[in-house]
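S1.2 Input.
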Amino acid sequence: MKTIRIGTRGSALALAQAHLTQGLIQKFFPDLTAEICVIKTSGDKDHVRSLVSFGGQGVFVKEIEEALLEKKIDIAVHSLKDVPDSMDERLELSGFLKRENPHDVLVSGGKKFADLKPGATIGTGSPRRVLQLKAIRSDVRCVNLRGNLPSRIEKVKTGEFDGILLGAAGLNRLGLPSEISEVFSVEQVTPAIGQGIIALQSLKENALAKEIAQAISHRETVIAARVERHWMNLLGGGCRVPMGAILSPEENAFLFTAFLADPQNGNSLRMTKRFNAAELSEDAHTCEALDAFARTFAEACHLQHIMLPSEAPGTDAIASFWNVEH
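S1.3 Output.
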């Protein structure tokens, strides 16, 4: 019996996502054995500094990608929002599992965001979340916070933070939906690109891994993942400025919501566009309607003095965000 090796980080959430992948493989390919291989990444070794200060998105995938290239594993399991906009040309994102709830949520011991005390301390490691929260309530104090989900939740219970912002997907996958105090709408806090999606990565030359990844993928999620990732590339890549985008399915249509903020002046823009199903496909690179919307969005950003990712000086602008915030 052939064994498929699944590479993953060792956090509780990463392992939950790997076990979900393992279960699907064994369901669709009963003649195969799926084995989980835990790999420690740079992001797992440093729980203090902000991600952009020592590598941005790639800190949670670099070592796992190296294991793929060295053929130590067959399929890598990632949270899609952690995967950089570019990768080694020998690798590809070969599949996407059904999207979990993509919304951002508040964990605050049951209190709604509007009911938190004046000047409440909110923990989050995301400038995207900070700028959108401050647009709702400018008085809150946001503090950089990293670490696994249980340790972050504990900081609310001990009173170190009045609330923290997390993704609903992670809490749901860990069986902790009861910790959610409030769910923010896409119009309030637009999610990160790929939020709630499990991405499967493999070597292009590994035909079996690609076959498996495609077989256990979810079609609507594949379209959303491809469109959101293409949007990121149209604007100039991720992890340079605070940005979010989400493609939400509707009946015979999709609603696309995009958010971008300038980390230096705090200006931001959110726009929506409805696409009919025929305009979008799994090959987002051929979507002329999305390309046209990107041009409209970029022009609107320039009018509001918002720096596009392609215009940012590397990750320097967003890396200095927490210094400005403090």
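S1.4 Remarks. Confidence is low (pLDDT under 50) at residues 47-51.
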